[in-house]
Design goal:
alpha/beta, Rossmann fold, N-(1-d-carboxylethyl)-l-norvaline Dehydrogenase, domain 2, two-stranded parallel ribbon, 47% helix, binds nicotinamide-adenine-dinucleotide, 3-hydroxyacyl-CoA dehydrogenase family protein, 3-hydroxybutyryl-CoA dehydrogenase activity, signal, 6-PGluconate_DH-like_C_sf
Length: 264
């Protein structure tokens, strides 16, 4: 947002997280300047537009648009949306970056459900182009239009998702590929190495499905499956036994040095 010219406040309850965020943003813009993707002056101007605060009351009263990206817990998010409903100007749009919680779950708490939607970025947000804008049944057309326009001003390619559905579009597509990859492995059709090689060499995916699962974190994938299954009750959404076993073993992927693969 700051790179797109907006005065931006980054809020977190943890000062340490804010310090880490400030340092991480500095590292990222330094790299962009070094590689010629960003002018040094533009980077400095963006940093000058950023404020970091643990006090929501500092930023909220002048905010036109809020993107909530706090811990993936409904009670925390509902509390934040209720607070924002009191603190922000009447016209402000309140978006959630949640990957799994549809904005209808927090809309009522805000007291202005028509001005609430999901604005779902992908990791790392400065690099990945897609933003999923997801409307809930009471999201107004104005809210959708402004959120899509804001994403474009941020240099993103937003896509509109007309109906809340677990996983939205990107994670559903990724989930379908993962599910098929796991079925092929379990059925003895091919090794995980050959399945990954096929995805890369035949379909030009930058990573194979097993490599990608290791990157995301097998615990995260297991958690998402549990949450989705709880919501849909569809046996096809149930957590995968092979992944659950790896998680139980502490093999969570790259972050623990071992998952589907072992990392030096
Ligand atoms: N990690 C990803 O790749 C990714 C991608 C897209 C969307 N998301 C979504 O973004 C959100 C955050 O994910 P994450 O992986 O960064 O989680 P995280 O648990 O790493 O970070 C959550 C942050 O929220 C802060 N927080 C907790 N309570 C708060 C409160 N009341 N007010 C303000 N800040 C508070 C925590 O201090 C922490 O810094 C989730 O909704 C997630 O679904 C994550």
């Amino acid at each position: 947002a700051a790179l797109a010219g907006y005065a931006t406040t980054v809020h977190d309850v943890s000062r340490t997280q804010l310090d880490d965020a400030a340092a991480a943003l500095r590292t990222r813009t330094d790299k962009m300047v070094q590689s010629g993707k960003l002018a040094a002056g533009d980077a400095e101007a963006a940093h000058a537009r950023l404020l970091f605060s643990t006090d929501l009351g500092t930023a909220a009263p002048s905010a036109d648009f809020v993107i909530e990206a706090a811990t993936e817990r409904l009670d925390i998010k509902r509390h934040i949306f209720a607070t924002l409903g009191h603190l922000t100007p009447r016209h402000a749009i309140l978006a959630t970056n949640s990957s799994t919680l549809g904005s209808s779950k927090v809309a009522e708490a805000s007291g202005r459900p028509a001005q609430v939607c999901n604005m779902h970025f992908f990791n790392p947000a400065l690099v990945m182009e897609c933003v999923e804008v997801v409307r809930h049944p009471d999201t107004s057309q104005d809210t959708v239009d402004v959120t899509m326009a804001l994403a474009r001003r941020m240099g993103k390619s937003p896509v509109l998702i007309n109906r809340e559905i677990p996983g939205f579009v990107a994670n559903r597509l990724m989930g379908a590929v993962q599910k098929e990859a796991l079925a092929l492995l379990t059925g003895g059709v091919a090794t995980k190495e050959d399945i990954d090689a096929t995805a890369k060499k035949a379909l030009r995916h930058p990573m194979g499905p097993f490599e990608l699962m290791d990157l995301v974190g097998l615990d995260v994938i297991d958690d998402i499956a549990r949450a989705t299954h709880a919501e849909t009750g569809d046996p096809a959404d149930a957590p995968n036994e092979l992944i659950s076993a790896l998680v139980k073993d502490g093999r969570l992927g790259r972050k623990t040095g071992t998952g589907w693969y072992t990392y030096a």
